[in-house]
Amino acid sequence: MNKVTIIILCIQLQVLSHQILAQKTIRTRLIHDGLNRSFSFYIPANYNSVKANALVFNLHGYGSNGDQQEFYGDFRKIADTAGFIIVHPNGTIYPQSTQQFWNVGLVGNSTVDDVGFIHAIIDTLSGVYSIDPDRIYSTGMSNGGFMSYHLACVSNRFAAIASVTGSMTQLTQALCKNAQPIPVMEIHGDADAVVNYNGSAGVLGIPDVLDFWIQKNGLDKQNVIQSMVPDINKTDGASAELYVYPGINEIQHYKIINGAHTWPGSPFVIGTTCQDFNASLEIWKFFNKFKRQSVASDDLEFFEFKVFPNPVSTLLQISLNKPLTGDALVEITNSVGSKMFSKTMNRIPENLEVSILPSGVYFINILTKDKRLKQRFIKN
């Protein structure tokens, strides 16, 4: 994002923040990766500038937008009590379909950097409001759920994610190979005709998604706590089962029996919508249990990996507090996981030439026989 744009936007937000804007949605824009992007955020009734507040991203589905998601998967009353800020960003328009979307490998060969856009929102809001960097979360409906999984795999800035009627693309799964464990919630109807519960071409079925995260999070699949959600609404046409896989990085799955492609508990009934629980409330209760864990790697306490300057224009300097032994694979990937540089070296270079990279967010990965180190950098 252009530095001048950041400064102007921060000044505008600072002016707003000094006004009493509790229980108000603020709509604004920023320039990221050459695109004029829009988002809104909701300041809760009891926002407290003295303490660090949680930040929740609530991402819209394919063809929808942030304003619609604010009302459909509504967190505002919950935020008013719990004190977290809610962000409703907008995706970009895919030219062939003219529909708004998040870039997770579902639509064409888009190069839109949505991960970098969301990071830019975090940085912008954190410069104005009191936000706890270890209590940032992402949820979303359908394509927004896909994007939340994508963030879990390629970003290290989130403490937990939740998906409603979403899943993972095969692209996201491939990018997730070296991702850190993270708490995950999946809410999904077994009669979903849009994102099939058992998967489709290029999209994992929900049982496969759960198995993937159970393994990544080091949980025991057999150690599951299963229960029926009380069927308090006998006329909604659906019921729900809850599966909890306990652990430091817990997994929860609400399986909606006969549930359609809908947000449970929403007042907007657009199909078979389970009304036995409020998805927004359960998602927040799940999020509120977790803080972001330090990025782990073998011997993390002894190895320190830094890159600078950051942002960088030409030469990226690499600093390790002690040498790594043996050959190392050095990779640079963009925010959607495409490799921009990959080379096996017998020593870690002190500098890497990055001037040919387009502006955006990148990750540098160093992999050895027993180490996996990762850092994020921004190319101007």
Structure report:
The protein is of the alpha/beta class. It has two domains: 3-287, Alpha/Beta hydrolase fold, catalytic domain (Rossmann fold); 305-379, Immunoglobulin-like (Sandwich). It is 21% helix and 31% strand. It contains eight helices and 19 strands. The chain has helices spanning 3-17, 66-72, 76-82, 114-126, 143-154, 170-175, 206-216, 279-287; strands spanning 24-32, 35-43, 53-59, 85-89, 92-94, 99-101, 131-141, 160-164, 184-189, 225-228, 239-245, 251-257, 305-308, 315-320, 328-334, 339-345, 351-353, 360-367, 372-379. Helix 6 (170-175) links the parallel strand 8 and strand 9 (184-189). The longest helix is centred in the N-terminal third of the chain and has 15 residues, at 3-17. Residues 1-8, 14-20 and 295-302 have low confidence and may be disordered.
Summary of the model, kept short:
By secondary structure, the chain is of the alpha/beta class. The protein is 21% helix and 31% strand.
> Total number of helical segments?
8
Following the backbone from N to C, one meets helices and strands in this order, namely: HEEEHHEEEHEHEHEHEEEHEEEEEEE
If classified by CATH, what would the architecture of the largest domain be?
3-Layer(aba) Sandwich
Tell me the count of domains.
2
Largest sheet: 10 strands, mixed
Features:
single chain; 380 residues; alpha/beta; Rossmann fold; Immunoglobulin-like; 2 domains; ten-stranded mixed β-sheet; four-stranded antiparallel β-sheet; 8 helices; 31% strand; globular; disordered N terminus
